[in-house]
Amino acid sequence: MNKLLLKALGASWLAFLIIGIVIKFCFAAPTITLLINRSYCAQTEWAQVAQTYRELYTRHQHKTLRLQSVVVFSDFDEAVFESPPLPTIVENLNIYGQFDPHRQKLLQQRYGQTQVIGCHSMKDFNHGVSADSMGKLGKISHKQ
Could you tell me the domains of the chain? Predict the structure, then answer.
């Protein structure tokens, strides 16, 4: 009788573990590299970009989105954060340079699964997703 009880208990724990793994993979948070275009724009526009980043950062903290890395770029340089910086860091970034669609396209190709936020949208070069085309980042689009 004890062997039968132990087998039933073991089988139920195994089934519980398998169901947990299936749920984790079926409902896994999307993983992206976030590209932040910090080309020059009005301070009010940059405040909107910073707010969008704060929302994405919150989603990352709640594990509904996984930010693999954050790349901050302009036409002059780029900085890669392996873990998402605090929203206050993004709010206080210096914005400078001109919008360079070619550079943005190259970064999107380099990092693959990307999402772009910035003052300038790129509807013609959407390998990832711009904030304007998503209606404030409601869904994540996956690159084929």
Answer: 31-134 (3.40.50.410)
